[in-house]
Amino acid sequence: MLRYVTTNEGKVREALDYLDDDVTQLDFDYTEIQASELGPIAAHGAREAYHHAGEPVVVDDAGLFIDGFDGFPGPYSSYAEDTLGIEAVYRLAASELDEPRRAAFRCVLAYCDGGQFEASPDPIDRDDRTVAAARGAEQDEEETDVLPVKLFEGFVNGRIVPPRGEGGFGYDPIFEHDGTTFAEMSAHEKNGISHRGRALAKFAAWYGERTE
């Protein structure tokens, strides 16, 4: 059974649309490292979650990347949401950026099952292995056992708008795609085009072949 590592039940419901009943939620508070990109954060979380669960896991890291702010809040989206709130992020964008205030939602899914497979992207996996090898005996066995992780990315372009809609979660009310905010879409509509949905579709195709 595949374990989706998250405290957000909405993410699991999205995953079920792509993975049928072959996924359950795992509420595990893995260490979220500081990084300028989503991939290393998700990869580290997947390895740590696998060591905890001892069974196949998938971890996602996602964020809102605003073009005019060099991608901010990006990997720090959760922190910005918790400390500033999404309306403050909108007001900042509205005061500092001209229309159309382009942005993108990005998501990286990281899969780890303790087995061997071609990891991706290679630079992340190679860098992690190099660091582990360099530490050698100074670290315990779990830390030096750097397992392969497969990454799947999805993104959707849009723009920042005044909050609209009652659905979704996170930044959905201020992110508009093709004239509609994510918060104005039904769960089914959003899942069909969202960054997480697109990453899940790629993962589901690969995972189906791996488990055949």
From TrEMBL:
Family as reported in the entry's similarity comment: Belongs to the HAM1 NTPase family.
Positions of transmembrane segments: none
Gene3D superfamilies, per the entry: 3.90.950.10
The organism's taxonomic lineage, starting at the top: Archaea, Methanobacteriati, Methanobacteriota, Stenosarchaea group, Halobacteria
UniProtKB keywords: Hydrolase
Classification via Pfam families: Ham1p_like
Transport is among the record's keywords: no
Name by which UniProt lists this protein: Ham1 protein / nucleoside-triphosphatase
InterPro entries reported in the protein's UniProt record: ITPase-like_fam (IPR029001), RdgB/HAM1 (IPR002637)
Biological-process GO terms, alphabetical: nucleoside triphosphate catabolic process
One GO cellular component term: cytoplasm
PANTHER family registered for this protein in UniProt: INOSINE TRIPHOSPHATE PYROPHOSPHATASE (PTHR11067:SF9), INOSINE TRIPHOSPHATE PYROPHOSPHATASE/HAM1 PROTEIN (PTHR11067)
Hydrolase recorded as keyword: yes
CDD domains named among the record's database cross-references: HAM1
A molecular function GO annotation: nucleoside triphosphate diphosphatase activity
